[in-house]
Amino acid sequence: MATVRRFWIEFDPRECSDARFWQGVGVTGFDVRDCLSIVADLFPDGLLPPVHRITVDVSLAEPLPVNPRHLGVPVWRGVWYPPVNLGIGPTRDIDRRGAPSEYPPPVPASHRRGQADKTSRTKTTWWDEIPHINGSRWPLMDMHRAEHGQGWRHYAPALRAACAADPTYGGLVREALDYMIAWCPTPDEWFDPTEVMFADQRKLDEYLRAFRAYLFGTRPEPIHPPGGERLSSARPQFPEDA
After folding, report:
1. What's the pTM?
2. DSSP structure string for 92-104
């Protein structure tokens, strides 16, 4: 009888339209192609974004990019992060046609642990205290970076839709965002991970609260970051009547 193995599959968030998978996908299957096909079923038309990294034989005793409280059942064949298999049970059909023809070779989990250990020896930063930061760095930090300003109109609606579609993921992001707002990072602290500078504390606080209201409230549009683009198209300007 074939045994199953746990894989962690990572995509480039800039190429991945579904925010649930920006931190990666945890999946259990017989081999790489089996797991890639299982994950492909979660994407429209079964098309995966480019795969950047595959880690094989991941141990749940080691740190993951997500909070362990939000996992499905890793011993079942299927996707356990996001916790898809909690709703559908183990995957039983076998169809490897969904796997892409090209993907990076799997990396043993021991390589990943070595990298994590090296990182853990670096200095502690203020955002290390945020709950679930390993699984929510993209919505809390990275998508706000100056280099992503021109993609703001795509990233923000995709994140909002992902939080609504997956209450588990949405709860993770909301809890982390609430903690960060309560922490009240200064403009200098915010600049450190994002390279975006706000003029004063009031503007940064307003920006973060508006972002939360957009994701989880009724605000139609967040405040766009300095240098970014608005979500809605600019209102056309008409010449004044003579």
Report:
1. 0.52
2. ----GGGS-S--P
